[in-house]
Amino acid sequence: MAEVLVFHHGHGLTVGMRGFAEQLRRAGHTVHTPDLYEGQVFDSLDEGAAYAESAGFDTITARGVTAAEGLPAELVYVGFSLGVLPAQKLAQTRPGAKGALLIEACVPISEFGAAWPHDVPVQIHGMDADPFFAGEGDADAARAVVETVTDAELFLYPGDRHLFTDSSLPSYDEQAATRVKHRVLGFLDRVE
């Protein structure tokens, strides 16, 4: 089974994020869920984003990198929205990565290096009309990853919700989130 490091989105380590990790554990995977917000969970994305901005996105990313220290190198990195920053950085820069799952965000490969590691598979998931994913360039970055990385997949779901995979938020879309979960579990079974 795979060993997985899951990074939460801008609300913090919500009940829904913990629930997602638990689903992976029930499938037999070892899952780590570091708290990049030091115990804080925000009711609104605006409040969470304000916290991340005040702490500094570099600081949030560094907290994620620190969370990987002491864990095996052979991890699958999973990031949800804001959590994609440390997940993608570690997948691109930490030797031994087994894979990356970038959910509801993606940054250009050049953000963390010249190229994506040739032996690190990646899956990217987002809604096709999400104002953050589709409207702020993440979908374009995801398409560029798929065009340049041998083992890369992009899955677009119909809808305009951001954080549609978190069952504890009003933006949750059960049908799309279930499809993401099945694809994630298939990816983890393939890379373990």
What this model shows, in words?
Helix 2 (45-55) crosses helix 3 and helix 3 crosses helix 4. The protein has helices at residues 15-26, 45-55, 57-68, 84-93, 138-148, 174-191; strands at residues 3-7, 30-32, 76-80, 99-103, 122-127, 152-157. The chain is globular. By secondary structure, the protein is of the alpha/beta class. The model has no long low-confidence stretch (mean pLDDT 97).
User: Can you give the helix content as a percent range?
Assistant: 25-40%
Give the overall shape. globular
How far is it from the N-terminal to the C-terminal residue, by CA? 5 Å
- What is the β-strand count? 6
Count of runs of 4 or more consecutive helical residues: 6
What string, H for helix and E for strand, traces the elements in order?
EHEHHEHEEHEH
Give the strand order of the largest sheet, numbering strands 1, 2, ... along the chain.
2-1-3-4-5-6
List the helices and strands and how they pair.
Layout: E1 3-7, H1 15-26, E2 30-32, H2 45-55, H3 57-68, E3 76-80, H4 84-93, E4 99-103, E5 122-127, H5 138-148, E6 152-157, H6 174-191
Parallel strand pairs: 1-2, 1-3, 3-4, 4-5, 5-6
Helix pairs in contact: 2-3, 3-4
